[in-house]
Amino acid sequence: ALAIGTTCTVAGASLPDARVGVGLVGASGVVAVLAVLRRSGARAAWSLVALGSLGVVAADVLTHDGRRLFGSPLPNAWLGHLPAFAAFVLFASALAAFARTRARGRNRPAVIDALVVMTPLVAISWAFLIEPLATRHTAALATKLVSVAYPIMDIVLAGALAYFVFAPGDRRVPSFGLLAAGVLAYLVGDALHTWA
To answer: How far apart are CA 163 and CA 18, in angstroms?
Structure first.
């Protein structure tokens, strides 16, 4: 998967339109997940990861290339963001499914630990991201809703990541660390993009 992603990144950087490279990297993630599906016991969770990755790529294409694809921009700019919102829900569902598979059922201590981590994160996000975006007087309502939805979805995904990390089970497998690091990097990048 890393080789496919690196190849797509290098090939995409040499193309005149860097968006193609971004799409290729996203598609390589889907291909890697589909390869894992053949030999994994958590097929449903990995399927959710693949669908979430497709959602991210679709949102990027619709948001940035809608005019080129359809001949005119989307009738409402927020429509391009819907696949990304679906991707957040799919990723969070996948993390919860992985945690439940690893813990073999429900795990209340992991939920409580995740809530302890989430409480200050929600307060900080509200104070520095959500409230300033929601009270912006110069933005249209649709713009405000989309701008506020991303930090809220980040909080949902961070909660699922915390539950995944705190759930009991074997944490020494490479997929645990790679998945947790990938989701964390995604969250940090999205938060920086929202804040900028």
So the answer is: 35
pTM: 0.81
The Cα 21–Cα 12 span in angstroms is: 3
Could you give the angle at the alpha carbon of 184 between the alpha carbons of 182 and 189, nearest 5°?
A: 95
The answer to whether residues 133 and 196 touch, using CB atoms and an 8 Å cutoff, is no
Both structure tokens of 86 = 């679906």
Q: What is the pLDDT of residues 60-108, one digit of tens each?
A: 888 877 788 788 888 887 888 999 999 999 999 999 998 988 877 668 8
C-alpha 166/C-alpha 116 separation (Å) is 11
- Buried/exposed 67-79: b ≥16 CB within 10 Å, e otherwise: eeeeeeeeeeebb
Exposure on the CB side of residue 126, measured as CA atoms within 13 A = 6
CA distance linking residue 45 with residue 7, whole number of Å: 26
Q: Helix 82-103 to helix 174-195 angle, to the nearest 10 degrees? A: 150
